[in-house]
Amino acid sequence: MNLFDLSGKVALVTGSTKGIGKAIAEEMARHGAHVVISSRKAEVCDEVAAAIRAEGGKATAIPCNIADKEQLKNLVDETRKACGKIDILVGNAAVNPHYGSALEIPDDAFEKVMDVNIRSNHWLIQMVAPEMRERKDGSIIIVSSIGGLRGSNVIGAYCISKAADMQLARNYAGELGPDNIRVNCIAPGLVKTDFARALWENPDAAKVRIAQTPMRRLGEPRDLAGIAIYLASEAGAWTTGQTFVVDGGVTIYGG
To answer: Are 250 and 208 in contact (CB under 8 A)?
Structure first.
């Protein structure tokens, strides 16, 4: 038996039209899962799903704004209609509308970060956990960040939300573990995505960060896909409540 085989599994991945979410969805499809591609723009979801199908994978596109509870409910309902079930949930979508001092973040921006980055994952878990409990099987993965382990003077609210995601995973891991449902976090370092562009597009800033990274490079989205496959598959059957740091060594070194 291949411990990393996802054949017959259905994986719902939020924020999966680009960056880390897209890489995770693509690799899960290559490992046999039927993946549900979701982000706010329907046409982009369709494009990513079509590309996966063109490779021979199984993919369904269902657009959703995760800040809206009714849209999240529709996402879960439509996934069940199209695929029959949800075996794997990957909460990847997140926002960071403020770059700068936490002393200057507007209330509405702070609330948006907390609503999208924490509460939407909480809602999704509430929505998918009952069917996983019935089957006595499931894997829930939240994409957090090493920002949840460190302070920041430019993305402070985002870091708070990502620390909360780690605790969300620990809480739900304890509650859902007796039903054989695993809940874990992945904490990426600085990855070259559009979302993190403000942190790496400046060549001088990127050079400093690379010098502080033992592996001497920034991350690529696909660098995060392997740990997601592990957590979603039989390989991770006895792994829960954990936060897996994938950062090229930054947090153990610090320059």
So the answer is: no
As its CATH architecture, domain 10-247 has 3-Layer(aba) Sandwich (3.40)
57-61: long-range contacts, CB 8 A cutoff, minimum separation 24: 57/26, 57/29, 57/30, 58/29, 58/33, 58/34, 59/25, 59/29, 59/34, 59/35, 60/34, 60/35, 60/36, 61/36, 61/37
pLDDT in tens, 95-106: 999 999 999 999
Residue in this structure with the two tokens 């982000």, named with its chain if needed: 39
| Annotated catalytic residue 172 | no
| pTM value surpassing 0.90 | yes
Looking at the predicted structure, is the pLDDT value of residue 195 above 80? Answer: no
In the set 99, 158, 230, 253, the catalytic residue is 158
Query: In the chain, where are the structural domains located?
Result: 10-247
